[in-house]
Design goal:
By secondary structure, the chain is mostly beta strands. The chain contains one helix and 28 strands.
């Protein structure tokens, strides 16, 4: 039976985030109200300039409020805002104390960051994290580290903001997508694509253990047709493509990617299915053709390849689909390095069901 599962988030990385709101007792509100400091006692600690972000080990002196559903996701990464608050002064366990300038306040926040299992470092290197105060950004260059642990990693930060600030946010930038957590409200913005948040956890829905299917091919004119068996090892539903990390053409779209192998029987014969021999139909009857830039098909080489990855751009709300492999002609190796066009017939059908969140 097919097994769907969320790609596990097991590798954790250190994260930094930004929070903003005006200082005062929380009183249970989602954002602390404004306050103005008219005078201050002598201070021997560090005064942060407005917009500056400082990582701390403790948030002593801060009135914190827990946050739910404040999350942004990138390719293989999930960042959550756990709590935020304001303070006139923050005393770190290192012995250092921090304040904001006159007519400003400190916003404190704590985050949790996880990385999907087996995510490639090249995907992480394309991510950028920053704190934006009224449009002025501070890049968090050490937001992700290569160190992993047994679970999500948490980090605490403070940012100095003027009392009259208009916007403060934590931004996650990935190729083709920027998302923000509003740190005055403790809420995510309206820039979250549907497909990216369809998994309950992690960023990819994965299905395995699909039933193979086959069609016929005639490698040479002097022999009976051979069987071409298509085995799909996994199907991935995601917003970021697994081949090149690209995003679909619209936030309302998603990638449905099939990873597997196409094998000619008996062994010793090699035939390659062209990408044009693949199509997808969904539960509404719509038909989709593969995206060549986001797919990887076997090449014609001296050592024949059988593995393939074929990606389709589909609606983010898709519920079910069927991969149909039905070429009328294939490229077959009749001798070492000699590939010719050969006829094929029939179709291999492999159906999948994409679970709702």
């Amino acid at each position: 039976m097919p097994r769907w599962g969320v790609q596990a988030a097991v590798c954790a990385v250190v994260a930094a985030a930004s929070l903003s709101a005006c200082s005062s007792d929380s009183g249970g509100d989602s954002a602390p109200p404004n306050s103005t400091t008219t005078s201050r006692p002598p201070f021997n600690g560090k005064t942060l300039a407005n917009g500056d972000v400082q990582k701390v080990t403790d948030l002593g002196g801060t009135r914190m409020q827990p946050v739910t559903d404040a999350e942004v996701r990138g390719p293989g990464v999930a960042l959550k805002l756990l709590e935020f608050g304001t303070a006139e002064q923050v005393d770190d366990t290192t012995g250092q104390s921090y304040r904001a300038p006159e007519k400003s306040t400190l916003i404190a926040f704590r985050t949790s960051t996880t990385v999907d299992k087996n995510v490639e470092n090249k995907n992480l290197s394309q991510l950028a994290f920053s704190v934006s105060v009224d449009g002025t950004q501070r890049t968090l260059s050490d937001f992700l580290t290569s160190e992993s642990s047994s679970g999500p990693a948490t980090a605490s930060y403070i940012v100095a903001v003027p009392e009259e600030r208009r916007t403060v946010g934590l931004q996650l930038k990935a190729p083709g997508l920027t998302q923000t957590i509003d740190l005055l409200e403790g809420k995510p913005g309206n820039d979250r694509p549907k497909a990216l948040y369809r998994p309950t956890e992690g960023t990819v829905l994965k299905q395995e253990a699909l039933q193979p299917a086959s069609f016929n091919v005639t490698p040479t004119a002097d022999r009976a047709p051979s069987q071409q068996t298509v085995t799909v090892k996994e199907v991935n539903f995601s917003y970021f493509n697994g081949v090149n990390s690209s995003v679909p053409s619209s936030p309302e779209k998603a990638w449905l990617t099939f990873v597997g192998a196409s094998v000619t029987t008996p062994r010793g014969i090699f035939c390659v299915t062209p990408i044009s021999g693949h199509k997808l139909t969904d539960d509404t009857g719509a038909t989709y053709t593969p995206n060549e830039a986001s797919s990887k098909m076997p090449s014609e080489s001296f050592i024949a390849e059988e593995s393939f990855t074929v990606s389709f751009e589909v609606p983010a709300t898709i519920k079910g689909a069927t991969l149909i492999v039905a070429p009328t002609q294939m490229r077959c190796q009749v001798s070492t390095g000699n590939w010719v066009n050969r006829p094929s017939s029939g179709e291999a059908k492999i159906a999948v069901t994409i679970p709702e969140k």
